[in-house]
Specification:
Number of helices: 18
Helix content: over 70%
Largest sheet: none
Strand content: under 5%
Structural class: mainly alpha
Oligomer: single chain
Order of helices and strands: HHHHHHHHHHHHHHHHHH
Number of strands: 0
Shape: globular
Length: 435
C-alpha cells in the first residue's frame, strides 16, 4: 500500500468519526502539563538518585531540567503546528514515514502504560507506609488510584481537566511548603563531596531521572482538544517548565541536604521522611494525601494523553482498528479501558512475582529516551529557522545521555522489532483484501 493511499485512508477515518471537543483552556493545560511531569518521580526518585550518586544527583537533576526546556518547546512547536491525537507518533510519521511513526507510537504507548503501574504503586507505598498496611496495602491503594484515574477519563477531559487543576495546584503548594520547612534541617556538609562515587553514576542517574521529566510530549496527544492550540500550547509549556524545574530542584536539594536517604526502604519514601522531619508530630495523613494527589494527578494526565495516542495508532493502522473508536461524547473509551486493563494486569503480575516499582523504571525510561531522540529528530526535519535549532539542541542533549543507557537500550530495540512485524503483517492483510 502506498504512502499516499495510507494518508487518504487516514483522512477518511478522521472525517467519518466523532471529533474531539476543544475544551482545554490555558490554566487546564498548565495543570495537565504539571500533573503529567510532576508525578511519581518526585516521590520515589530524589532518594534513589541521591543514593546512586550522592550530592552529584543534583547535577543530574539540573541537567535533565535544562534538557526539559528545548524538549518541551520542540513538542510544543510541533503540536501547535500539527495538532493531532497521535502526538509524537504523528510528527514522526510526517517526518520519516508511516513505519517510523508507528514504531515511535509503540514506544510511547507501552512506556506510558508501564508507567501506569509504577505511578499508582508509588502512591501505594507512601499511603501504606503512613498507615502501616504492608505490601498488600500498597497494591490495594495503587489499584484504587488507577481505578479513579480511569473513571475520571471515562467521563471526559472537561471533568478530568477540572480535577487536574485542583490536583496540580495542591501538589505545587504542598511541595513548596515542605521544602521551605526543611530549610532549618539542611546542612552544607551533606553536599560534599559532590561526586563521592565518581561521575559515571551521575550519568546513570541522568538516565534514571528521565522518568521524572516524562510528560512534555504527553500533552501533544491532547493538542486537538485545546481551545486555541496555536497560542496556548507554547504558553502553557513555558509556564510549566519553570514550575516543574523549580519544584524538582527544590525537593531534590532538600532530600540531599537533610540526608534523608541511604537505604532502599528510606529512598522510596524520602519525601515522606522530609515532611516528617520538617513538621514533626504525626504526619501520616499529610503524607498519604500528598501521595494520592501527586500520583492521581499523574495517572489522570497520562491516561488522558496515552488513550488519545492509542486511538490515533488504531486510526492510522499501527494498532488494531477497534482502538480507533470514540463514543458519542468523543471519548476514546476502548483505548482508556485498554490502558487501565494493561496497568491492572501489571499490578497483579508485580504483586505475585514480588517485583517493586523501581525494578520497572528501566522500561519507561529507555522507551522514553528513544521517543525523545526520534521525536526531536522529527522536529529538526519539520520545523524551520530558530525552532529547528531548538529541536537540534534537544536532540544533541538526548544523544549525550544515550551512552549511559547501556543494556536498557534493548527494550526499544525489541519493541521496534515487534512493531515492525505487526505493521508488516497488517499491511500484507490489507493488500490481500484489496485483491
Amino acid at each position: 500500500m502506498s504512502e499516499k493511499t495510507i494518508d487518504e485512508r487516514s483522512k477518511l477515518r478522521r472525517s467519518s468519526s466523532a471529533q474531539f471537543s476543544r475544551s482545554i483552556s490555558l490554566p487546564q493545560a498548565i495543570a495537565l502539563y504539571v500533573g503529567a511531569v510532576v508525578g511519581a518521580g518526585v516521590l520515589i526518585l530524589p532518594g534513589i538518585a541521591a543514593n546512586m550518586s550522592g550530592p552529584g544527583s543534583l547535577v543530574a537533576w539540573a541537567f535533565d531540567g535544562i534538557l526539559g526546556l528545548p524538549l518541551a518547546l520542540t513538542f510544543a512547536f510541533l503540536a501547535a503546528r500539527f495538532p493531532d491525537a497521535g502526538g509524537v507518533a504523528a510528527f514522526t510519521r510526517r517526518a520519516f514515514g508511516t513505519m517510523w511513526g508507528g514504531i515511535v507510537g509503540w514506544f510511547y504507548f507501552f512506556g506510558a502504560a508501564v508507567a501506569q503501574v509504577v505511578v499508582p504503586l508509588t502512591g501505594g507505598y507512601y499511603v501504606s507506609q503512613a498507615f502501616g498496611w504492608g505490601r498488600l496495602g500498597s497494591f490495594v491503594v495503587a489499584a484504587l488510584i488507577l481505578a479513579l484515574a480511569v473513571s475520571a477519563n471515562l467521563y471526559g477531559l472537561r471533568l478530568s481537566g477540572r480535577i487536574q487543576l485542583l490536583l496540580s495546584g495542591g501538589v505545587v503548594l504542598i511541595l513548596l511548603v515542605a521544602t521551605i520547612a526543611a530549610l532549618p534541617h539542611m546542612k552544607l556538609t551533606n553536599l560534599t563531596p559532590l561526586f563521592p562515587h565518581g561521575f559515571v553514576p551521575v550519568g546513570h542517574t541522568m538516565i534514571l531521572l528521565f522518568f521524572a521529566f516524562f510528560g512534555w510530549e504527553a500533552i501533544a496527544q491532547l493538542s486537538e482538544e485545546f481551545r486555541d492550540p496555536a497560542r496556548d500550547i507554547v504558553r502553557s509549556t513555558i509556564f510549566s517548565v519553570a514550575i516543574v524545574t523549580l519544584l524538582y530542584l527544590a525537593a531534590s536539594l532538600a532530600v540531599v541536604a537533610t540526608g534523608m536517604y541511604g537505604t532502599a526502604g528510606q529512598d522510596r519514601v524520602a519525601i515522606a521522611s522530609l515532611i516528617a522531619a520538617s513538621f514533626g508530630g504525626n504526619t501520616r495523613v499529610v503524607t498519604a494525601v500528598i501521595a494520592v494527589l501527586i500520583t492521581l494527578g499523574t495517572a489522570n494526565a497520562y491516561i488522558a494523553a496515552t488513550s488519545r495516542l492509542g486511538y490515533a495508532l488504531g486510526r492510522d493502522g499501527a494498532f488494531p482498528q477497534w482502538m480507533s473508536s470514540l463514543n458519542t461524547r468523543a471519548i476514546p473509551v476502548r483505548a482508556i479501558l485498554a490502558i487501565g486493563g494493561f496497568a491492572a494486569g501489571g499490578l497483579a503480575l508485580c504483586y505475585f512475582l514480588r517485583w517493586e516499582a523501581e525494578q520497572l523504571l528501566v522500561v519507561p525510561t529507555s522507551l522514553g529516551l528513544a521517543t525523545y531522540i526520534i521525536g526531536t529528530a522529527a522536529g529538526v526535519r519539520l520545523l524551520s529557522r530558530w525552532k529547528r535549532l531548538v529541536s537540534g539542541g534537544a536532540l544533541l542533549l538526548c544523544s549525550i545521555v544515550l551512552p549511559f543507557a547501556s543494556a536498557s537500550i534493548f527494550f526499544p530495540l525489541i519493541l521496534a522489532g515487534a512493531a515492525f512485524l505487526y505493521m508488516k503483517v497488517r499491511k500484507q492483510q490489507a493488500h490481500e483484501l484489496m485483491r
